[in-house]
Amino acid sequence: MTQSATPDIAAGRLRADDLAANFDDVKPPLDRKKALIESSRCYFCHDAPCVEACPTSIDVPNFIRMINTGNTLGAAEEILDANILGGMCARVCPTEILCEDKCVRNTSEDKPVNIGMLQRYAVDHLLQSNHRPFARQKPTGKRVAVVGGGPAGLSCAHALAIHGHDVTIFEARPKLGGLNEYGIAAYKTVNDFAQKEVQFILSIGGISAKTGQALGRDVTLDQLRKDFDAVFLGFGLAGVNALGLADEDKLSGVEDAVAYIADLRQAADKSKLKVGRKVVVIGGGNTAIDISVQTKRLGAEDVTLVYRRGPEHMSATWHEQEFAQVNGVKLKHWARPIRLLGHNGAIKEVEFERTALDDRGQLVGTGETYSILCDQVFKAIGQKLVKDPVNGKARESLDLHGGKIAVNEERKTSLGNVWAGGDCIASGIDLTVQSVEDGKVAARSIDRYLRGK
Amino acid sequence: MADLRSNFIGIKSPNPFWLASAPPTDKEYNVVRAFKAGWGGVVWKTLGENPPVVNVSSRYGALHSADQRMIGFNNIELITDRPLEVNLREIKQVKRDWPDRAVVVSLMVPCTEEAWKGILPLVEETGADGVELNFGCPHGMSERGMGSAVGQVPEYVGMVAKWCKQYTRMPVIVKLTPNVTDVRKPARAAKEGGADAVSLINTINSITSIDLDIMAPTPTVDGKGTHGGYCGPAVKPIAMHMVADIARDKDTFGLPISAIGGIANWRDAAEFIALSAGTVQVCTAAMHYGFRIVDDMISGLANWMDGKGYKTIEDFRGKAVPNVTDWQFLNINYKSIARIDQDKCIKCGLCHIACEDTSHQAIAAQRVDGKRRYEVIDAECVGCNLCNHVCPVPDCISMVAVETGKPYLNWTQDPRNPMRKAAE
Predict the structure, then answer these.
(1) Would you call B353 an interface residue with chain A, using a CB distance cutoff of 8 Å?
(2) In which domain, by residue range, is B289 found?
(3) Which of A61, A350, A390, B12 is 20 to 30 A removed from A208 (C-alpha atoms)?
């Protein structure tokens, strides 16, 4: 077999209908019959472990009981009261390590109630109805700037709007939604659900959105703190970690997974997306899984995910790992990239060194190496806070902790009228549902602050 | 292997499982299917005088459990709506083709001697094994002075039973309505009238649901509904109480009983037989799942009997009757408390919240090393059994007897009873 001299990166690898099927709803919604059967499995636990496992503390048994009695709108209200992005969370939450992991049915039969799908059933029902459960309280005249239109910002904005405050969202990208719009794997949120949810949230009124407005470029924190009564920062992690290898930025075909996924999510026609025949993904989180599966579903022939530690260390859950494997992604563990080999300016091969834990539990290279031939390499080894926009030229600078914004329990930062939440704070949990909770908790604190002012 | 053969007031069947008089036994086609499936006998759907009755469209209502299974069922169907001679011809044919199975014919005619005298010979001519007098149906026919309108008046029950015994050599079973205050009264009347046996219960007056869109009871007939006869698993406890009352009444003690009411499996059947039933009749469960449920009834009962060492039905029939008593004779000094098997507990907390909110605050919700743990507070537990019933895990909560060192003492003897009879 001869090895082609030019990298094999091409668009339109699959037929249109195969491509459409590959990016259709990965878990089709429950219909009424299935929702009734599944909801009947819930025991209506007291002090339910699933509620405790939910970062937003959704009263799971209560909403499931409401589904079972035919009170689906009530179920959705119960969910949205606790988590205004309950529709997206139902789609993207790693329920296998949250609510469903704690379901008491695991103890006796290893089969939890399918809480995520029931939540989706209820919220979708409400969103598709004319029912709008939230109304604004009397306007307070207070103004709050929310920086970042992702889950944290939207959650905060909605809660503040309910309390009668006027909210302005500053979003760097053209659309609101954050990772829901630009990051989540396409087959988890089909039919433009992210934007439908955004519209639902904005329908409360009192929220205006300025898109294409980046902090540090178009607006400054100093100015926002002056112009608004309070500021909430929920701009996520804009920086991408680098491999730190030579030619990383020079070789074509070496790409950031995050940027590629954003392009994929925005692509009107996925057959126009170019994807390698042989793909290597480096990383062990959900982004690594998402880029692996999505490139596979775009038509890549071989996708190999390489992670420097073992499966149990991956931040992608066991369920996500299985999902990747079912989709034909090869998972390789205990190896780290040490060299990118190119040909004519394009990536050709990645050399890995096998790794192990030493006596002290530190990850070390073993000196043994192997190479994987490839046409495309995706870096998915985490994202980081870009500090400049917040601390670049500001009068007062924000306290950071571990490279992220330090906050107290109420999500208040070190600055007088500034709160923060979502991936940009030092909570250690980078889940959509946690971001929603941050926004909610911050809004409560901001509201108290504004009323006391 | 246990011998399930039954001889009930001379009516023999290979097992005690009969199909009750109802839609499943309305015609030859169904009955033959039932016999092929293994049913021991049938009580043919109630025959009446010509012209046949006319039924309405939409006839059944249901109560469902959360998993969408019928736990209660009701109907507003009347007796057979087929011509008398068609039914008689089919009964004769079926009995000829299935001589080892019991074929009993249910009857309902106006409450006059002439009417009963007229129909009995026609049934006798089919070779049927017996008749069951339908004094039970609580809907429709009762408005015409039949069914439960007769069953609710003990004098009528006795009178018709007497006519029937007078005008046929066939065994006569009187089917009782539960829509009375004290079922022993009509049972005594049936016995006095000469009936060979009673069967019970017929269905209970009921409205299963209201359609909130059209604001009418279900089943709904062109916007209106009426009460129907309730049956299915939900009525079993009511039926058991009535069967037990007749079984232990001094006047009706020993009167053969064919039990009906929510029987769906071998265990239900065994329970009724333990309360002295000679045969059991099934309708709703068959209408829910089809005739093959009899497979489980036959093998389940036989296996259970083998396990207990019972060789025939008679070996355990009525064995529970002596243990049915009045509240006043229960041992007031007996004490039991709940025990939670921590290895089986799945930490749902249902026992705790039930006890905490609605009973005796006797189950503590604890956190041990952050993990949930539910523990019975012995001193507070009155042994009410609620926790045991709400627990979703089989055998996780049990009620254990506590040694009190006190002798048997019932309420009639208890010094705390102000109405206590003085010791003799």
Answers:
(1) yes
(2) 6-323
(3) A390
CA gyration radius for chain A? 23
Alpha-carbon distance values, A330 to A116, A351, A382, B424 (Å): 27, 17, 20, 90
What residues in B contact A43, CB-CB < 8 Å?
348, 350, 392
Per CB-CB distance under 8 Å, the chain B contacts of A104 are: 346-348
Clarify whether residues B25 and B132 are in a common domain.
yes
Give the model confidence (pLDDT) of B297-342 as tens digits: 999 999 999 999 999 999 999 999 999 999 999 999 999 999 999 9
Q: Tens digits of per-residue pLDDT, A69-128? A: 999 999 999 999 999 999 999 999 999 999 999 999 999 899 999 999 999 999 999 999
Distance from CA of B346 to the nearest CA of A (A): 6
- Would you call A45 and B393 a contact, using CB atoms and an 8 Å cutoff? no
Q: Indicate the angle between helix axes B28-37 and B293-308, nearest 10 degrees.
A: 40
Which residues of chain A have a CB within 8 Å of the CB of B353? 46-47
- Among B287, B304, B323, residue at a domain's last position: B323
Residues B249 and B184 sit within 8 Å (Cβ to Cβ): yes
Q: How many separate domains does chain B show?
A: 2
Paired tokens of A444: 């409560």
Is residue B24 a part of any domain in this protein?
A: yes
CB B192 within 8 A of CB B141: no
H or E element, residue A209: strand A207-211
* Continuous H helices in B291-385: 293-308, 350-358
| Residues sharing a CB contact under 8 Å with residue A319, sequence separation 6 or more, in sequence order | A94, A96, A97
Nearest CA in chain A to B347: A104
Q: Are A33 and A49 in contact (CB under 8 A)?
A: no
Inter-chain residue contact B393 with A108, CB threshold 8 Å: yes
- Same structural domain for residues B220 and B281? yes
Residues of B involved in catalysis: 137
Cα-based torsion angle of the residue sequence B214, B219, B220, B225 in order, rounded to the nearest 10 degrees: -100
Q: What is this model's ipTM? A: 0.87
Contact B115, B160 (CB under 8 A): no
In this predicted structure, the answer to whether residue A5 has a pLDDT above a threshold of 60 is: no
CATH number at B357 reads 3.30.70.20
Q: At B305, which amino acid appears?
A: M
In chain A, what residues touch B365 (CB-CB under 8 Å)? 46-47
Q: List domains and CATH numbers for chain A.
A: 32-128 (1.10.1060.10), 143-238+385-452 (3.50.50.60), 240-382 (3.50.50.60)
Rounded distance between C-alpha atoms, residue B200 and residue B239, angstroms = 7
Q: Is A43 within 8 Å of B68 when comparing Cβ atoms?
A: no
Q: In the block, which residue shows the tokens 């995706």?
A: A378
Which of A52, A116, A24 lies closest to A432 in space, CA to CA? A116
Q: Smallest Cβ distance to B349: which of A40, A45, A68?
A: A45
Find the angle CA(B254)-CA(B260)-CA(B264) to the nearest 5 degrees.
130
Q: Are strands A275-276 and A9-10 parallel, antiparallel or unpaired?
A: antiparallel
Does the beta-carbon distance from B346 to A105 stay under 8 Å?
A: yes
The Cα–Cα gap between B17 and B266 comes to 9
For chain B, which ranges sit under pLDDT 50? Answer: 424
Mutate to test the interface with B, among A34, A41, A104 (most CBs of B within 10 A): A104
Query: Using an 8 Å Cβ cutoff, are B161 and B223 in contact?
Result: no
User: Which residue intervals of B49-183 are DSSP H helices?
Assistant: 84-97, 113-124, 148-151, 154-167
